[in-house]
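User: Earlier you gave me the apo prediction for this protein. Now I'd like the version with pyridoxal-5'-phosphate bound, so I can compare the two side by side. Same sequence as before, with the ligand SMILES added.
Assistant: Got it. Here's the input I'm using:
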Amino acid sequence: MKSNINKLSRINIQNLSPYQSARRIGGYGDTWLNANESPISVPFKSRLESFNRYPECQPDHLISAYAKYVSLLKKEVLVTRGADEGIELLIKAFCEPRKDAIIYCPPTYDMYAINAKIANVKIKEIPLFRDTWTIDLCHLKSNLNGVKLVYICNPNNPTGNIICKKDLINLLKITFGRCLIVIDEAYIEFSPDNSMVNFLKEFPNLIILRTLSKAFALAGIRCGFTLANEDIISILHKVISPYPISTVVTDIAVQALKKNQIKNMKNRVVTLNRNRIWLVNELKNIHYVKKIFDSHANYVLAEFYRFEKVFQSLWEKGIIIRNQNHKINLQGCLRISIGSEKECIRLIEELKNLSKT
Ligand SMILES: *Cc1c(COP(=O)(O)O)cnc(C)c1O
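And here is the structure of the complex with pyridoxal-5'-phosphate:
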C-alpha cells in the first residue's frame, strides 16, 4: 500500500517541488541569513488566559489597528495567516483551474508559481529585464489572454530592486478592466516611499499584500494582510477559513501595531538599512564578488566567482545564506539577509578569510 500512496495524490501534486522554506533546508548554522528574518527578537507576551472560544474570523481590533497603520478603511483590509495565505486565497477566489492563468515576473518569490501549480492554474512567466530588473510591459501586455492575476513583488525578492511607480501605474492602466494586479509589499517598510497603497482609491484592480514577518520581526506568529477595495475583500471573505488567526496571534499583532512599537520597528529598519549599506561597501572590496545588485530591502543579492565554494564554506562555518543560482538570470548569485551588526561583521570576516585560500 505504502508505495501506492503517492499515486493517489493529484497528478499536479505528484509533480510538485515544494517550496524550499528556510527551516526545511537544514544546516547547523548559528548565523541565519537565508530567510530575510529580523535578526532581533522583539519580546512580546500574550496577556490572554482564556482560549476555550473560537476567535473572530477577522478580529475587529486587529483590522482596525492595521487599517490605521496604512490609512485605509477597515473594509479594505483582510488579515491572513501570513502574506503567503493572501497569495493562495487570491488564486482560490479568482482563478478557474486548468482555464485561467496568473502572470509573474521571474526571478521573483517562488510562492506565486507554487500556489498556482497546487491549484492547477496556468502560469505565464514574463521575465524581468536582466540586471535592471524592470518589468517587460510590452511582453506582459501581449500575454494577458486568460490572465486573472499579475503578481509583482516590490521591492522584488531576491533581487532587492524597486519597480518604479511609473511602470506600476502603466501596468495598472494596461490591465484595467481585464485582470487584477497584486503587488507584494512584504519588504515595503525598508523603502516606504515606494508603496502603492495610495493608489488603491484610483485603481480598483490593485491589490497589495503585506506582512508582519519582515520589518515587524514577527515571522513566528504568521500574520499578513491583503489590502484592496471593498468588493475584492468581500470575495476573499468567502474563501478564507473560518478561524485563520489564533487568539494569541491577534493579541501580539495588535501590540506590535501600537504607536510606540511602530516607532521601534522604524528604528530597526534604519539600523538594518545602515547595516546593508555597510555590508555592500565591504562586499565591493572582496575580489571574488563579481557584481552586487542595488537593494532596497533587508537582503542583498550578489554574483560571485566560485559561488558554490563561497556558499559551502560559509555553510560549514555556520553561516547560512540562500543560493539563487538555479533561478532565471541569476547564475552564480547568492542572497544574503541583513543580520545584526555583529553578524554582518562575522560574514565579511569569513569572506575575507576565504579569499586568502
Ligand atoms: C517573506 C515573504 C512573504 C511571506 O510572508 P509571510 O507573511 O511570512 O507569509 C511574501 N512575499 C515575499 C516576497 C516574501 O519575501
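For your comparison, keep in mind: The chain is about 35% helix and 15% strand.
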